[in-house]
Amino acid sequence: MKISLVPLVCTLLIPSAFADEKGGLEKDAAPPAPHALEEGYRGTENARIMTVDHAKTMHDGATISLRGNLIDDQGNDRFVFRDKTGTIHTIIPQSVFDGRTVKPDNMISINGSLDKKVDPPVVRVDMLQK
Question: Where is the signal peptide (predicted)?
Answer without folding.
Answer: 1-19
